[in-house]
Amino acid sequence: MSATFNPGLAGDEAYLNRPLRRDIREIPGDSGLPFLGHLPQVIKDVHGFQKRHIARYGQLARINLGLFPGVLVTHPDHLRQVFTDPGENFSSAMGYDGNVSAIYGGSIITQDFGHHKASRRVFQTAFKRSALEGYVDIMNPTIKENIADWARQRDFRYTVASRKILIDVGARVFFGAESAGEEIRRIAHLFHEMNHVGLMALVHWNIPGSKYWRGQRAKARMERLILDYIRARRAAPGKDLTSILAAERDENGELWPEELLLPHLNLLLFAAHDTTAGATSHLMMYLSQPENQHLQEKLRQQAFDLGIDNPSLADLDAYTDMENAVLEATRLHPAVATIMRRTTRDVRLGERDIPADTMLMNMSHWAHRSPEFWTDPETFDPDRFSEERREHKGHSFQFLPFGGGAHKCIGMHVALMNAKLILHHTLRKYRFELQPGYDCRCDVLPLPFPSKNLPLKVTAL
């Protein structure tokens, strides 16, 4: 067993045992409203808030998101310093200490530096191209089953439907769950209790019936279920991700202990579900607008021109316009509102001295919509990602759809192929329009989604 790999630990450094620094008044900024901080402004208009705050205090200003103060990090130069982090100054483990670590402690999102690198190495086989080809074989029929009755639904909400697709896809691709309803319904229920109840707990009181208690109960049940999957896949492997990880061995030729694989497998469904659902929901919101119907038709025609009902991974490579459309939706609406880090020591960030144990709220919205880097940044324009324009290549950290640095999303290729498969199957079957009166507002917290679950008019072709 490798001495460097222990997914149960973030490390043993002293910074892991120190409390959050709450008094950072030496950094320009303000604390917002009592108790709420700047949360109301962020919820109402995150991009507008960032522009106003930066105009008043400059980059790297102090903000307060209600429960804790921190520093707003938005400029690509500063995001690059935080995410590349050669000096190990910025901790993901402590950035997510609290609600996230209570559910996903020990996973790669809550690990730092050498521990994170060792854990990530174990996952690499599960995201190689040969593995992705097997996942596509599972995704195609799953998506087709889910969209079969969309035109018959009286009050169709795209976000609800996309979440349903992605739970089913995740359960089958990651765990090899049977397509029979009961098994996937159980996973969906536990996922809801962990992420839409437990992660929302304001206090960690383990009182029966409380949000925290419900989240912890669901986590324990999900972990037991995942352990059963690991054992089953070692006995009879399939094309799913658990089968691949369950067969991985360390440098001594030993299978990785199931309890060390467990926290990472528990994280996968969370990491892949709402982020991809948000990306496809925002994209469909734009494609359904009257002024963008020609773009929807362009992508639909490309899907028909492919002439294949169930695309392979190689077929999806040709869908560059679809990929550009997904990227443009994530530019305007990043899949995660803020990526958290905490300083491990006193550090110079840009032109600002940041004390040890200070929370950093890394938000890409400003960089994603800055005219310094983009042409007409408020306009939905997928062609900005084309080979001819390549607007996203001006600065290596101006566009962060999947984070950056050592913690860049390891499943980004799975997310893109999932999104393209959903577009392929849905656009060949239906035409989408906004319901009359829908105002295309978008929520930011707890995760970014179009408001009201995106009600659409769905017409069968």
- Treating each run of at least 4 consecutive H or I residues as one helix, how many helices? 17
Helix share of residues? 40-55%
CATH H-level superfamily = Cytochrome P450
Task: Look at the helices and sheets and give the structural class.
Answer: alpha+beta
In total, the number of domains comes to: 1
How can the largest sheet be summarized? Answer: 5 strands, mixed
What does the average pLDDT come to? Answer: 92
Number of strands: 11
CATH topology: Cytochrome p450
Defining key terms:
single chain; 461 residues; alpha+beta; Cytochrome p450; five-stranded mixed sheet; two-stranded antiparallel sheet; 11 strands; disordered N terminus
Describe it.
The protein has 461 residues and is of the alpha+beta class. The protein has a single domain, classed as Cytochrome p450 (Orthogonal Bundle), CATH 1.10.630. The strands form 4 sheets. It has a 5-stranded mixed beta sheet. The protein has a two-stranded antiparallel ribbon with strand order 5-6. Strands 8-11 form a two-stranded antiparallel ribbon. A hairpin with a 2-residue loop joins strand 5 and strand 6. Helix 7 crosses helix 8, helix 12 packs across helix 17 and helix 13 packs across helix 17. The protein is globular.
Lay out the secondary structure.
Blueprint: H1 39-44, H2 46-57, E1 62-64, E2 69-73, H3 76-84, E3 90-91, H4 92-95, H5 99-104, H6 113-123, H7 129-147, H8 158-175, H9 181-197, H10 211-235, H11 241-246, H12 258-287, H13 293-306, H14 313-316, H15 320-332, E4 339-343, E5 347-349, E6 352-354, E7 359-362, H16 365-368, H17 412-427, E8 430-434, E9 442-443, E10 449-450, E11 456-460
Parallel strand pairs: 2-7
Antiparallel strand pairs: 1-2, 3-4, 4-7, 5-6, 8-11, 9-10
